[in-house]
Amino acid sequence: MKRAINYVPDRPAGFFLALLPFILVFGIYLVGSDARLTANPAVKMMPSLSHFGVAMLRMSFEENR
What we know:
This protein has two helices and no strands. By secondary structure, the protein is mostly helical.
């Protein structure tokens, strides 16, 4: 039996394992943001992805006054 400490995943599994922490943090942020905005829509602590998109478009394509 192979010991788990000596196991080297193949290339696709290694890629997935490398992305897994980022996917989990992104999912936790989405759930937390949705819960927080449901409780209080005016909160700015954890904006939703749509708010991120609107802010990026505004900052990228609108001229400063």
